[in-house]
Amino acid sequence: MNITADCVVIGSGMGGGMTALALARKGLDVLLVERGERIRREPQNWSPEEVFLKRRYKPAETWLDHNGRAYKPGVHYVVGGSTKVYGASLPRFRESDFEAAQHDDGVSPAWPFRYADIEPYYAAAEDLLHVHGTTGQDPTEPWRSGPYPYPAVEHEPYIADLAERLRAQGASPAANAMGIDLRPRGLCIRCGTCDGFPCLVGAKSDAETCAVDPALETGNVRLLTGVRIDRLETDPSGARIVLAVGEGADGEVRITAAKFVVAAGAVNSAALLLRSADSKHPDGLANSSGQVGRNYMMHNNAHIAAFDATRRNDVVFQKTLSVNDWYHDGGDGKPGGVMQLVGKVQGSMMKLEAPYAPRFALDEFAKRSVEWLVMSEDLPSPENRVTLDASGRIVTHRTALGVAAHRRTMKSAKRLLHRVGYQIIGTQWFGIEMNSHMCGTVVAGQDPSRSVLDGYCRAHDVANLWVIDGGFFPSSAAMNPALTIAAQALRVVAESDIAA
Q: Which residues form the FAD-dependent oxidoreductase 2 FAD-binding domain (predicted)?
């Protein structure tokens, strides 16, 4: 199969979907390539057993850690990418996240642009993603040029009471910025299967719903599914890509375009560039700096379940509240982290962490527990990286940085929850398999000797290559990354020559 387009976008997650939509609205002929297929709307979308225990929507492939141990990564190769099952929490990064900051384990570097540069595109992305939120509750929130498009998601009584109890202890609980369709006549039914599940009713603001499908409606975008791009080939000078080569169900696929956008996710984007090594790029495409695959970051994450035997948690849609008080100062003058409610956990979902516990006991625990994500910043290190083994298999090397700050945030969160009446607090630490919020593998920067991309995600070495996903992040911050990826995609198309 031979295909031609003005621009090919590889990957249909938040970065690829938003880039395709923005380019389509500029009138470009865009080919959007996704290695997976659309997730069918089916009863299994809302089944904890199917989604979590049987991994129905995750790939069968395995990656290796730095010790050579095989593991199943928490990625999703489907139209919309991992946003199909994300929790739809869409906060902005704080102004300080774009500046250099000192941490225990090193420096979180400055970005090649500032908050003010991306702020208009945060607003545009919030509009496209139907973000519900409010201002004035969170002491760490950045300035805004306008209000949220829609009001914050209302707390259910249990969460509203929890917010008051937290506030009585001196905390500043704030409504989460959420991407769900609670607009007038919207589709959201506030079910208990949002965070971690595909949305059966199409009410989650995922990349398929809010970017890919609107892009297709313009008539300027074609969607090619079931095709994995294996390499990018350059012209004899090595300065421009001329061909993307992949494999589909019917054999080899060859795509010619004037411009190429890689948006396959931080790990797979780096792996594609490494697989595309040639005589002009012996260490991988766009890798004269040696930074492709390096600075691999994930957030330092843990789930905590706070149990109160005296109160029954009857909440359905739980993920409406955060406490960000330690974001700028974890107690030692250095950045800390956040605690953010997650979707209500059911007993069957606890089986992965407690496989020998009786199901009835887990169900009873879940009836009286409230669950949080505690998240803090990981730091970039050239030794934390993505490589390929001799067979081309992905290998991830990671020693978490910022662990001390994360543990301090965990202690602060647990002390706060104990003070508001929870007697037992269980912890689930995230391992490398979770791959939560991967970023940093094709870092953007002003110095071509120390970065892969410029401030508009264009490769320093290859004139017609852009990488627009979490891979461009110079730092991970301690906020969910999806909105920042979406905003940067809109900024790149609006301000750079990608659409020229």
A: 6-40
**pTM exceeds 0.85, yes or no:** yes
Number of CB atoms found within 10 A of residue 62's CB: 12
Q: What is the DSSP letter of 328?
A: S
Going by C-alpha positions, the residue among 479, 134, 175, 156 that lies closest to residue 327 is 479
| Eight-state DSSP code of residue 379 | -
Residue pair 481/266 in contact (Cβ under 8 Å)? The answer is no
Output the six-digit token pair for 315. Answer: 């909440």
DSSP alpha helices (H): ranges in 305-402?
359-367
What is the phi/psi pair of residue 403, to 5°? Answer: -65, -40
Write the pLDDT tens digit of every residue in 210-230.
Answer: 999 999 999 999 999 999 999
- Which amino acid is residue 306, in one-letter code? A
Inter-residue contact 172 to 139 (CB < 8 Å): yes
- Give the largest Cα separation in the chain, rounded: 72
Of 340, 306, 345, 312, the residue nearest 326 (C-alpha) = 340
Rg (CA), the chain: 22
Instruction: Flag whether pLDDT at 352 surpasses 70.
Output: no
Residue 351 has pLDDT above 70, yes or no: no
For residue 267, give the nearest of 32, 427, 109, 436 by alpha carbon: 436
- Contact call for residues 246 and 229 (beta carbons, < 8 A): yes
What is the spatial distance between Cα 369 and Cα 351, in angstroms, rounded to a whole number?
Answer: 15
